[in-house]
Design brief:
The protein is an alpha/beta fold. The strands form four sheets. The chain has an eight-stranded parallel sheet with strand order 1-11-10-9-8-4-3-2. It has a three-stranded mixed sheet with strand order 6-14-15, with no helix packed on it. Helix 10 links the parallel strand 9 and strand 10. The longest helix has 19 residues. It is globular. It starts with 8 loop residues before the first strand and ends in a 5-residue tail after the last helix.
Length: 489
């Protein structure tokens, strides 16, 4: 059943488990929408188990999974009592492909189930999951796992998510759900699918809840395109401006860079909120809306509310390591600023990607250059058709000679960074190689820090997610708050 009322605040889905289940749970319990990241949850679950599952949270979630046998297989393979040795590598994982193996599919479904289940444990607030459209090979299994855990909303951007409504409908009907695979040079149409009954067998629940779907867009043009066709129409939109953290849409037209090498955005790149309101579906605005004044402004413009990331990424409840959080907060305390560069080259996806400048991270050129190029997690690989008709995968952040052998072009490799491993390191799950090399961090934030500066002034040692929610709501009238902020399912 869909939530009876809508949140005003949506906590952004950030990185690989930066928007952790702990963060999402705190925001949800504060009466708004907490959102977990749906990226690499198979790796996150496997590595948490290899760390010994401190607190027992993952094992508690696995005990609630509909298929005890599937949960037991994953525990048997990855759980290490007391945790692995600090210098021991994590076990390699089966890769997600167009035709994902049974082991990889099970781990992905259970990983996403566990994160949503923990976020929803013990309360009736609303929880969402954020996924990237570009990460197609992970989408069906991620959303199936989330749906099995009763996720309330699915949020997706970084592409045109036109097939997600049908995918969610199919899962709710316990049918095989599929999306079309983007294959470079492909001569035939290929699909990526997941089937609840095939994966769960007799353990398939009697009902699978159909979550609401919010498409993340940068302009009303895409919103109108998705709205016109009932088959691809979402339940609402998140309108994300160019200052939002993580990936952002490139500027419209030919990309031009400023003196610092960042994309130049203009008025054409800002959505017309009046036209968004005319569409008639609820929408939330994101990117520089992280203060009470901006929340009130968004509501006045007809939005249902705002999506905020940076305030929550910096909160004590986010998934980043204490070291990373303290580095970021120290910059705020000392300088009142954190330099966040919108790097047009960093992400293998080709989308501009916000990178926070921090010492001893891949934001520093010398640290980036020291990292051996390799691609082992492989979430951001691109599918391509080989000469024999088979499908291969390549990533512009992998070793250059391998990329070229797969038909890639050398200019595409310049400045590319391994987001997969860097984002895992941000949350304390970075790989340690057999040769002793440990993966370095790659931190992303939004470029608007007004809200963070204000909270830093009030809470110089840091703040909880619930404090950020309460502050953001201070200029929302009591009548609006009572009507919209109670988001129980």
């Amino acid at each position: 059943m869909a939530p009876s009322t809508q949140p005003i605040i949506i906590q952004g889905g950030m990185g690989v488990a930066v928007s952790s289940w702990q963060l999402a749970r705190e925001v949800s319990m504060a009466g708004q929408m907490g959102v977990i990241s749906g990226t690499a949850m198979d790796a996150v679950l496997a590595r948490r188990l290899q760390q010994g599952d401190p607190g027992g949270h993952m094992r508690r979630a696995l005990a609630a999974f509909p298929s005890p046998e599937m949960a037991a297989r994953i525990l048997d393979k990855f759980f290490i009592e007391g945790g692995k040795a600090e210098d021991a590598p994590y076990r390699p994982l089966p890769k997600l492909t167009l035709d994902t193996s049974r082991a990889a599919a099970e781990l992905a479904v259970v990983g996403n189930f566990a994160e949503v289940w923990c976020a929803k444990e013990g309360h009736d607030g609303v929880v969402g999951i954020n996924c990237l459209e570009k990460l197609q090979v992970a989408t069906p299994t991620a959303l199936l796992g989330a749906a099995l855990a009763g996720v309330d909303y699915v949020l997706m951007g970084a592409g045109i998510p036109r097939e997600i409504p049908a995918l969610l409908n199919d899962f709710a009907a316990k049918r095989e759900g599929k999306i079309t695979a983007d294959v470079a040079g492909g001569s035939i149409t290929r699909y990526i699918s997941a089937d609840p009954v095939d994966i769960l067998g007799d353990d398939t629940p009697e009902t699978i809840k159909r979550p609401q779907f919010l498409a993340i867009v940068s302009a009303e043009v895409l919103a109108n395109y998705l709205y016109r066709d009932p088959e691809i129409r979402p339940d609402g939109f998140i309108v994300e401006g160019p200052s939002a953290g993580g990936h952002s849409a490139p500027p419209r037209g030919k990309m031009k860079l400023d003196d610092d090498g960042e994309p130049i955005y203009g008025p054409r790149d800002l959505a017309n909120l009046l036209k968004m309101a005319e569409i008639g579906l609820p929408f939330w605005v994101a990117g520089a809306y992280g203060t009470p004044e901006k929340v009130a402004e968004a509501l006045e413009a007809g939005a249902a509310g705002v999506q905020v990331g940076t305030l929550f990424a910096l909160s004590n409840d986010s998934g980043v390591t204490e070291e990373t959080r303290e580095q970021l907060l120290e910059q705020l305390r000392d300088n009142g600023d954190i330099k966040v560069r919108n790097d047009p080259r960093a992400s293998p996806t080709g989308f501009p990607f916000k990178v926070a400048t921090l010492k001893d991270t891949a934001s520093e050129e010398e640290v980036y250059q020291e990292r051996p190029r390799l691609c082992d997690l492989s979430y951001l690989r691109t599918a391509y058709e080989k000469e024999n008709g088979d499908v291969g995968f390549r990533c512009p952040a992998e070793p250059i000679d391998m990329y070229l052998k797969k038909g890639g072009e050398k200019p595409a490799t310049e400045g590319r960074k391994c987001l997969c491993n860097g984002l895992m390191a941000n949350i304390g799950l970075g790989q340690t190689r057999k040769d002793g090399y440990s993966e370095t961090r790659l931190v992303t934030l939004g470029q608007d820090l007004d809200g963070a500066r204000h909270l830093m002034g009030q809470y110089p040692q840091g703040w909880k997610a619930g404090v950020a929610v309460e502050w953001l709501m201070t200029q929302v009238s009591s009548s609006v708050s009572a009507d919209k902020s109670a988001v129980a399912s």
